[in-house]
Write a structure and sequence with these properties.
Layout lengths: L1 H25 L4 E10 L4 E8 L4 E10 L3 E8 L3 E9 L1 E8 L4 E8 L6 E10 L12 E51 L10 E7 L4 E2 L3 E14 H18 L3 H5 L2 H7 L14 E6 L2 H8 L8 E5 L1 E6 L6 E7 L7 E48 L2
Antiparallel strand pairs: 1-8, 2-7, 3-6, 3-8, 4-5, 4-7, 9-17, 10-16, 11-12, 12-15, 12-17, 13-14, 13-16
Length: 384
């Protein structure tokens, strides 16, 4: 009986020591985890990360040293379990948080005010038992690798097949120069002494507009003129038709007039009379200058001359309207001026032609496959 009582007493003493030691440890002072002064500028967020053991009691203290308040404080048990938040924080004293499971906590401090904020932050812990008193509150990166299987389709060429088809192509079938007589007039120009009429006059010449359709295109490439006075000039022009026709190997038959051959460059010189009355002429770009010409003011021109007869060509001004001013400087005698203007149009004719074609098209087989990818993600975890 004595030995049984002695064993019972020993068990009671051991139990008492264990309970007393735990009660004594529970009354221990908090263990400092971090104490720092943090500066947070406008629009800035700062995060602190610490690990805690299961059963730890976290004590959080915050004091705003500079600034009215801090926009937001958050304490989050990672990955996303929020355990505490405070808006427009100024001072937080002895905020206690119980850690149910070992894990990593994020302390987030956000400033949205214009001014800088200076804060004092203190984080402590009270371990649940002596076994976690020396728990390492640091953290480390851990790489998690996930295998991802992605189905995809792959087209594979197994051969080619020939396909016959017809193709229509627009082709140029003919190109020719065509003469267009724009002006052919005998104009009376009175003398200087004529009291009822001026000794100057003007003529208007309209160049043909360019034309374009699906199968035909026309554009003016050049024009030429003949200006002659009286019977002498008319006779000279008739001689030109005879003489130039022989020299140019039928150019007059092709174009109809010597000045048409002049416009395309097949003829370079024409016969002009040596005796007879002459006329002054000017080529003007618009009617405004015609009015200045008729009123004796200074006016703009792009060609001019004087003679019993004259000729020339132009390849620059091929569209629009121009004017010819005529002046008789003979005091007594009026003159009759023969004016001819011929335009040369380049005419292109097209036609659609059909051709037999063969093209190769690939024979494609679609294969369903699976691609394996390894995705790596880094996360923060407790060191222990």
């Amino acid at each position: 009986m004595f030995w049984k009582n002695r064993i019972m007493i020993k068990k009671i003493l051991v139990l008492f020591v264990i309970v007393f030691s735990q009660m004594t440890f529970a009354d221990n002072q908090p263990i400092l985890v971090s104490e720092s002064t943090v500066t947070i500028d406008f629009g800035q967020t700062k995060n602190l990360f610490f690990s805690f053991a299961e059963g730890d009691e976290v004590i959080f203290d915050f004091q705003l040293v500079k600034g009215k308040n801090l926009k937001e404080i958050q304490i989050v048990e990672l990955p996303n379990n929020g355990v505490f938040s405070e808006f427009k924080a100024q001072n937080i004293v002895g905020k206690r948080i119980t850690v149910r499971n070992k894990g990593l906590y994020k302390f987030k401090f956000r400033n949205s005010s214009l001014g800088r904020r200076v804060c004092k932050i203190k984080i402590s812990r009270i371990p649940a038992s002596e076994s976690t008193a020396n728990f390492n509150t640091n953290w480390k990166w851990k790489t998690i690798r996930d295998t991802i299987y992605t189905p995809y389709a792959l087209d594979s060429i197994t051969g080619y097949k020939k396909i016959k088809y017809k193709e229509k192509i627009k082709e140029l079938v003919n190109i020719e120069n065509v003469e267009d007589l724009l002006f052919n007039k005998n104009q009376r120009v009175h003398s200087e002494s004529n009291l009822n009429n001026k000794n100057s006059t003007w003529l208007r010449v309209d160049l043909p507009n360019n034309f374009k359709s699906d199968l035909k295109e026309e554009k003016v490439i050049a024009w030429a003129y003949w200006i002659g006075v009286g019977e002498e000039a008319q006779q000279a022009y008739k001689e030109n038709i005879k003489t130039v026709g022989k020299l140019a190997q039928g150019i007059t038959t092709m174009y109809g007039t010597p000045i048409a051959g002049l416009a395309v460059g097949a003829i370079t010189d024409l016969m002009i009379p040596t005796i007879g009355e002459d006329v002054k002429y000017w080529f003007m770009p618009n009617h405004v200058n015609v009015q200045k010409f008729m009123s004796g003011q200074q006016f703009s021109i792009f060609d001019k001359g004087k003679g019993i007869a004259a000729y020339g060509k132009n390849t620059n001004r091929t569209q629009g309207t121009f004017y010819i001013g005529l002046l008789n400087d003979n005091f007594k005698q009026g003159i009759d001026v023969d004016v001819k203007v011929v335009a040369i149009k380049e005419v292109k004719t097209f036609a659609y032609k059909e051709y037999d074609r063969v093209r190769e098209e690939p024979i494609i087989v679609t294969l369903n496959k699976i691609r394996m990818d390894i995705k790596e993600t880094k996360i923060r975890v407790p060191v222990e």
